[in-house]
Recover the amino acids of this structure.
């Protein structure tokens, strides 16, 4: 699906979910809004749940792009953080329909893929707060960085809530500057009090993400082995058989590396090549492998 067309589809579906509710919006409603057939829908998405997952991923990625761009500007760490918080607030307001729907629909309950993705985003954002605080305050905050990051997260969410329902009363940059001034005061008075949060307290989220990452990779490697076995039982000419085995070997190598992330263009190219051979007896196994790979790439935060 072309990128621009996919974005239009995702935005249209999100508006439908926001207006009618996720559970009461049918696939028929979606394809009518898109102007395509149900068959075309299933060519792009395996289910309504997968569509919602893509909507969630799309909006979170869109949200973080301008935030990350702020760091490229020649500013002090403090001004960079203010700029990033401002952009994050503005980005959420720009995608307000999505984030309001996310609160109403309780997205983590839709399926485990969405739940795990949102957990991973929470860890990612929390780590980002921690790094920015250390960038600004250095060793002075190191001992209490997790506690202060938790406070920042809570303050940010509370002001965001009021801003979403009354945009005219608040400016994003004013909230961002106010938050950072309060952090200044908190850091100034930390004293010798022992922190409540530490690495061990938040490790459960990171450990869960790492464990699921390994499990997804194991399933992909098992699926590749299954495809290889099926290939060996088929009456295919030697040249095609050799090329398909070579493609699967390359795919296996991409997912066998511990220290590097599979190259998306290589993985997609191999799957498209195998699919282009149009071998009916491999169709189901290839669909299963493609879904496993899609889930893995979507969750990969390494």
């Amino acid at each position: 699906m072309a990128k621009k067309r996919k974005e239009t589809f995702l935005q249209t579906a999100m508006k439908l979910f926001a207006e009618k509710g996720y559970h009461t919006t049918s696939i028929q409603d979606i394809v009518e809004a898109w102007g395509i057939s149900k068959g075309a829908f299933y060519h792009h998405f395996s289910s309504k749940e997968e569509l919602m997952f893509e909507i969630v991923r799309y909006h979170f990625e869109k949200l973080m792009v301008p935030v990350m761009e702020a760091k490229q500007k020649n500013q002090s760490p403090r001004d960079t953080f203010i700029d990033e918080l401002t952009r994050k607030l503005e980005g959420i307001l720009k995608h307000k329909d999505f984030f309001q729907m996310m609160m109403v629909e309780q997205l983590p309950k839709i399926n485990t893929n969405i739940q795990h993705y949102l957990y991973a985003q929470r860890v990612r954002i929390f780590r980002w707060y921690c790094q920015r605080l250390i960038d600004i305050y250095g060793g002075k905050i190191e001992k209490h960085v997790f506690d202060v990051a938790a406070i920042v997260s809570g303050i940010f969410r509370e002001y965001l809530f009021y801003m979403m329902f009354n945009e005219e009363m608040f400016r994003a940059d004013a909230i961002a500057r106010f938050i950072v001034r309060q952090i200044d005061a908190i850091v100034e008075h930390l004293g010798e009090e022992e922190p409540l949060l530490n690495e061990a307290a938040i490790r459960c989220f990171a450990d869960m993400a790492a464990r699921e990452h390994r499990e997804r990779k194991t399933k992909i490697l098992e699926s590749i082995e299954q495809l290889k076995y099926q290939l060996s039982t088929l009456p295919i000419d030697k040249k095609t058989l050799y090329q398909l085995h070579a493609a699967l070997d390359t795919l296996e190598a991409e997912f066998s590396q511990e220290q590097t992330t599979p190259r998306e263009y290589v993985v997609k190219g191999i799957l498209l090549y195998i699919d282009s051979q149009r071998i009916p007896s491999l169709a189901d196994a290839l669909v299963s492998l493609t879904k496993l790979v899609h889930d893995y790439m979507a969750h990969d935060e390494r």
Remarks:
- The chain has two domains: 3-197, 205-299.
- DSSP finds 14 helices and no strands in the chain.
- The chain has a mean pLDDT of 86.
- Residues 222 and 289 are 9 Å apart (CA to CA).
